[in-house]
Amino acid sequence: MTGVTGRVALVTGASRGIGAATAGLLAARGMRVVVNYLRSGTAADEVVAGIEAAGGQAMAVQADVRGVAAVESMIEQVHAAWGGIDVLVHNALTPYVIKPFQDMTWEELGGKLDDEMRAAFAVTKAVLPAMTEQGWGRIIYLGTGLSRRPREGVIALGTAKAALAQFARYLAQELGPRGITVNVVEPGPVEDTRMAHVFDEEHKQRQVAATPLGRLAHPGDVAQAVAFYASEDNAFMTGTTAAVNGGMSMY
């Protein structure tokens, strides 16, 4: 295994895209990585195999992170193998509809809000005891620039992620005295993700034209920001948001 830390990192939704890139990078930097997945077991196993082939340590664990019992079972499996979780990267994306508010039901908007916060609540509650006991922890939530900058049709996602971002700030205030940092990474549009295939090529080119750095993000760009927040180097940043969008939106 490369590196010397041996910290245990749980990455939710890590079978593909940003989650997979993050799992690989954290493993390359010496962490033992839990690759959480919901349905894509084969893809999760491939992520683990890639990490192990590069000399790292990883394990795939299935769990629907919206369920308290499922999350507790996952944490118990990890604990039996490696002990407590030091780093939580909550990346799992719960389903949402893309449509105007005018056509939306409360179940579609409220359901996304409930799923988003239920998952964040469950995984955070589950990892806190070990982090608190050792007086060290890193929590990183994956948000979206859509929580600040509205775009047509994605009110459910943008509103839910805005709630997550504020949740993170409150936790940062409460958990700071325990040695636990809480931060948010908010990507703009990202290539090679499920969301990337929702819009057509013309839409993508408009996004590129609006980005000073001249391209959309790759999953690896987002993983780099997550990895900093997860590291020993991040000793004094908490309650912050990293915008990984090539300058498309600045705040």
Written overview of the protein:
This protein has one domain: Rossmann fold. β1, α1 (17-28) and β2 (32-37) form a beta-alpha-beta unit. The termini are far apart. It has 251 residues and is α/β, with parallel strands linked by helices. α1 (17-28) packs parallel to α2. 44% of the residues lie in helices and 15% in strands. It has helices spanning 17-28, 41-53, 68-82, 106-134, 155-175, 201-209, 219-230; strands spanning 8-11, 32-37, 57-62, 87-90, 137-142, 180-187, 241-244. The protein has seven helices and seven strands; from the N terminus they run βαβαβαβαβαβααβ. A seven-stranded parallel β-sheet has the order 3-2-1-4-5-6-7, with helices on both faces.
Number of spatially distinct domains: 1
SSE series: EHEHEHEHEHEHHE
Shape: globular
CATH topology, by name, is Rossmann fold
CATH superfamily (homologous) name: NAD(P)-binding Rossmann-like Domain
Q: Bin the strand percentage.
A: 15-25%
**Residue-averaged pLDDT:** 95
Helix and strand content put the structural class at alpha/beta
> What's the level 1 CATH class?
Alpha Beta
Main sheet: which strands, in order across? 3-2-1-4-5-6-7
What keyword list fits this structure?
7 strands, 7 helices, 15% strand, seven-stranded parallel β-sheet, 251 residues, Rossmann fold
